[in-house]
From TrEMBL:
Its EC number is 3.2.1.55. It comes from Chitinophaga polysaccharea. InterPro entries: Alpha-L-AF_C, ASD1_cat, CenC_carb-bd, Galactose-bd-like_sf, GH, Glyco_hydro_b, Glycosyl_Hydrolase_51. This is non-reducing end alpha-L-arabinofuranosidase. The lineage of its organism: Bacteria, Pseudomonadati, Bacteroidota, Chitinophagia, Chitinophagales. Belongs to the glycosyl hydrolase 51 family.
Length: 628
């Protein structure tokens, strides 16, 4: 192999390797959003889902869910608890597959409450372990007939993966209660209404260049009434209108009939998360079309204006002056500085002339007002087929900015498509590999095998070789709860207490952490290296550190000797870093109990003769960093 280090082919976009967040697999509620109470505001379709009334105290009172929709359309329901005797009436919240509680940590309880009638009702909360034993408690004493927020904190005495929250009301009396909430004190950056710190840390460690949000199919909704509407996800958390999650299903591998979107993690929090992890925000908006797999419902073209207005107002929310309506809301929520939004997605996985018709109207309105915003366009669900070809041709003719290609396919597809972009049209729109993952046929719960990760690593050499046309890429989906998922494989798995990165996560991490700044040519003879002798390869310069970074994949079951002559440099450092991701078992997985079974290891290799000489282990991914 030869690297011509003085032949720069293209810059690597600073946001090249990013992440794609969708609220699927309990990623938001029950996942990264640290709220522990499920159905805290009684807005699920079944108003008491997640709550139970233990029979021991059931005779001491009752609960009625009151609906005041006409006056409070965004948070219509609350619970009216009547305590009849002197003993308590209890309600128990099960959490999202239980509540993960850690010994020694502080938990913050809060509730909106008001007294009905003349006698106050006291609330005692207790966390219960799996056997029903108390592991922490607190008391609040609401008084007065106006809604007020009451808070109490306590420290848990034990670590429990599936705790429950007992809420005991003692009277006699009548109390109205809403937004019954429990958060750990320790969230990411210790924010109230915050995010799970371990999960955010895994994202930080990836060094993602962008954050695509909020989906995925949830942008579209199964039907338009349940599409994602960003304006309903900002402002006071109490006023964010809950909807059923598009991934709510009885038929998932782990059924999720209790899957809703509380929007406690809403658009403000997504922008803040992007900023925290150093990623450019990339929101995807509904373009007047529901999920075409489900309903094919579209909004009439002459009624598209509210959807377009949402897009225009989003730019103002993210970037606008604090004197503008939406910029002022951003400031009120605690972020007067702009979020520096530069890209916007119009529709997710839409297709057909209906999409083109709507996209064209969107694009004109957004570009007229915000000519510098780059638009990301859907290219449908898969690169194989008529839908893709039609959109690809049409959007290229319309001079679209960035086309969003999705590929979920076999490891073999990823290997044989590693050269996909080597001969792509350079003059047209840029490419965003917006969702991809190698899917194997095994029936295991977690399909993130080393075989899949290795195929993705090989494919990504082709993305990296062609950063003049491919400007962004993100694996999908990002997160999955082991007890409540609808889709696998996923990049990061978690339960209520623990989380881990899959082998695929480490592939993404190695690319993003060793992104470099410019692609240089790496050839075998005069050909790019896309599977000859089962090796896939690419090379970049890292101007900031003065290093050459070489990525190579050996997709074979046998060792492969490689020799890379580096031309166009004065010399190489005598020894260089070799980071390896490898397993002799293609079916190997990481897990909660063995989170780093497959993880990078590092050693040094001799590179003093302007040559990188090594024997690649079977089924391995190598990253070599050498000073030049
Ligand atoms: O990533 C899971 C789903 O795959 C996304 O919601 C959708 O865009 C794609 O079909």
């Amino acid at each position: 192999f030869t690297i011509k280090a003085n032949e720069v082919k293209a810059p690597v976009a600073p946001h090249m390797w990013g992440i794609f967040f969708e609220d699927i697999n309990l990623s938001a509620d029950g996942g990264i959003y640290a709220e522990l109470v499920k159905n805290r505001s009684f807005e699920f379709n079944t108003p008491l889902m997640g709550w139970s009334i233990p029979k021991e105290t059931a005779a001491n009172g009752n609960v009625l869910v009151v609906n005041r929709h006409d006056t409070h359309p965004s948070n219509p329901r609350f619970a009216r608890i009547t305590v009849t005797g002197t003993r308590s009436f209890d309600m128990v919240n099960e959490g999202f597959r239980g509540m993960g509680i850690k010994a020694g940590e502080q938990y913050n309880f809060s509730v909106y409450a008001r007294q009905q009638g003349s006698t106050p009702v006291k609330i005692r909360i207790a966390l219960l372990d799996e056997s029903g034993k108390e592991i922490g408690n607190a008391v609040v004493s609401p008084q007065g007939s106006e809604w007020q927020l009451y808070k109490a904190s306590f420290t848990a005495s034990a670590t429990v993966a599936k705790a429950k929250l007992q809420v005991a009301f003692s009277g006699p009396g009548i109390l109205d209660a809403d937004m019954i909430s429990l958060f750990p004190q320790h969230t990411w950056k210790e924010r109230s209404n915050g995010l799970r710190a371990d999960l955010v840390q895994l994202l930080v460690d990836l060094h993602p260049g962008f954050l695509r949000f909020p989906g995925g199919c949830i942008v579209e909704g199964k039907e338009l009434t349940n599409r994602y509407q960003w304006k309903k996800t900002v402002g006071d958390v109490n006023d964010r209108e809950l909807i059923i999650n598009r991934w709510n299903t009885e038929f998932a591998h782990r059924a999720t009939p209790d899957y809703y979107q509380s929007f406690g993690l809403g658009f403000f929090e997504y922008f803040q998360l992007a900023e925290d992890i150093g990623a450019s925000p990339l929101p995807i908006l509904n373009c007047g079309m529901a999920c075409q797999y489900n309903s094919g419902e579209v909004v009439a073209v002459n009624e598209l204006q509210p959807y377009i207005q949402d897009a225009l107002d989003l730019v103002e929310f993210a970037n606008g002056d604090t004197h503008t309506k939406w910029g002022a809301l951003r400031a009120k929520m605690g972020h007067p500085e702009p979020f520096h939004l530069k890209m916007l997605g119009v529709g997710n996985e839409q297709w057909g002339p209906q999409y083109v018709e709507r996209y064209t109207i969107f694009a004109k309105a957004i570009k007229d007002k915000y000519p510098d915003i780059k638009l990301v366009n859907s290219l449908g669900p898969s690169p194989d087929g008529d839908k893709f070809e039609f959109l690809n041709d049409t959007l290229r003719r319309l001079n679209a900015d960035i086309l969003d290609e999705h590929y979920y396919s076999s490891p073999g597809w990823f290997l044989s498509n590693a050269g996909r972009y080597d001969h792509y049209d350079r003059k047209g729109p840029k490419i965003f590999a917006g969702e991809y993952a190698a899917h194997t046929k095994d029936n295991g719960a977690n399909k993130n095998s080393w075989q899949a990760a290795l195929a993705e690593a090989a494919f990504m050499t082709g993305l990296e070789r062609n950063t003049d046309v491919v400007v962004m890429a993100s694996y999908a989906p990002l997160l999955a709860h082991v007890d409540g998922w609808q889709w696998a494989p996923d990049l990061i798995w978690f339960d209520n207490l623990r989380s881990y990165g899959t082998p695929n996560y480490y592939v993404q991490k190695l690319y993003a952490n060793h992104k470099g700044s410019e692609v240089v040519s790496m050839l075998k003879g005069n050909q790019v290296i896309t599977g000859q002798d089962s090796v896939y390869a690419s090379a970049v310069l890292d101007k900031a550190t003065g290093e050459l970074v070489v990525k190579m994949v050996n997709a074979a079951a046998t060792p492969v000797p490689v020799e890379v002559a580096v031309q166009g440099v004065k010399g190489l450092a005598a020894s260089s870093r070799l980071i390896t991701l490898q397993s002799n078992d293609l079916q190997a997985l990481n897990s909660l109990d063995a989170p780093t079974h497959i993880a990078p290891t590092e050693k040094t290799i001799d590179t003093r003769r302007k040559t990188i000489k090594t024997t690649m282990a079977p089924w391995s991914f190598y990253v070599i960093r050498t000073k030049i």
